[in-house]
Amino acid sequence: FRRQEQKLDTCVRCVEGKLDKHFVIAFGNQTYLALPKSKPLVRNHCLIVPLNHVSSCAQMDEDVLDEIK
């Protein structure tokens, strides 16, 4: 449990963690839209990130996936 807690505390994408909020463009109900912290993969590259920490897309609730669509 402690190891997972440490990972959450240092997560650079978690809103409660180390997220650099100046990269955030907009907040939705379940997700937020942000610019990448490092060099973008392609022009206009953005990130859609769930507000609640998940390890994979398989852990996302249906409402989170719907908002991403």
UniProtKB/TrEMBL annotation:
GO terms for biological process: mRNA splicing, via spliceosome. Residues 2-69 form the Cwf19-like C-terminal domain. Signal peptide: none annotated. GO terms for cellular component: post-mRNA release spliceosomal complex. Coiled coil: none annotated. InterPro entries: Cwf19-like (IPR040194), Cwf19-like_C_dom-1 (IPR006768), HIT-like_sf (IPR036265). It comes from the Eukaryota. Belongs to the CWF19 family. This is Cwf19-like C-terminal domain-containing protein. It comes from Trichinella nativa.
